[in-house]
Known about the structure:
mainly beta
Amino acid sequence: MRSGVRCSVRRENMPHSWIIPFVALLGFILCGDTLAETAETLDFLPFPEEGAENAYSFSEANMRLPVFYVEPEDTFIVKNSAITLTCSAAPASQLLFKCNGNVLKDKQHTTLENIDNDGVQHVTVSIEVSRNDVEEYFGLDGYWCECLAWSLAGSTKSRRATINVAYLRKSFKREPFPTEAEVDSTVELQCLPPAGNPLPEVFWLKDGDLIDVAREPSLIISSEGSLIISQVRLSDAGNFTCGAQNIARRLISETAELIVFVNGGWSSWGQWSGCNSKCGRGVQRRTRTCTEPVALNGGRQCRGDALQKSDCTTMCPVNGAWTMWSSWSTCSPDCRQHRRRTCTNPGPANGGKSCRGEDLSTQNCTADLCREHTEAIVFDNNGELLQRDPSNDCRV
């Protein structure tokens, strides 16, 4: 403050808002207050630093409230690297950053100014924020910064940006463990990533290769980070690893093996065998095999019996037997007579044997009692056959 002058700038009872900039200018010229000190007293700052008063254009284009076209964004400090916050506004006579309620000193800013073809003044300022700045602030609302801009019409402020230190703890809260799952079942490989800011992204590796869940409709990563596999296939077996990453670091969990097993299944029953008894009561059998499917990778064998038995009865075979011979027939013209018998006493049944021997017996009639065979043949005048008259008489 300049000696001999008592400076006190007050806003009470100011009749017109356009007077305020000039009051502030008067305080600046007479008192030599820095811009930061004035900013903490008033909500506006009409002119830049000492010696630059005449640089600001009083054109009509600059008689509007500043508008920000670049505002500070929320960001993270990674490791020990400082970050840069930037804001730009027009029309503007001055821009300053305010962090955690304190307006930063002018020397902490990097400022660029230019006037466009319409006479509008553009101002861009940048500051650096270090890890120490953030870690040494213990406010409940976190470390924040916003930009203040002034013109002849008054002041505006930008959006508030928060700055955090990025981190990712070393230990997973929950890691996957070796798991066995039956084929076609649903399995969950658990994973809960370490605490971090920003929140870490979870990813999964299978046998060292990144899993693209967008291309695998049966794979889902839950909101907590677990890998869910629906309808597990034999090809899903392998070594799985959970990973977590953010801008601070990338971590990998312990590897867990997933074994996919198949429980054995019975085939259909085969046909019944024949009865093992040739006559009377016996047993018949049928079988099945544990092959649909075959048990794999430690899967359970089929429960139950592979052999089934059933009682059966087989009709005993009946061998055929001859009836008695019939009486001899009368003597035939050729002096022979016949008799018969049949294989019906009993007849063969149930695979029994037929009778052996002949069912017809023939013998000559009594000797010397048969007359010679004679036959009368009559022809007509033309030599055509008219009549045959056989005549034999076998007398006994």
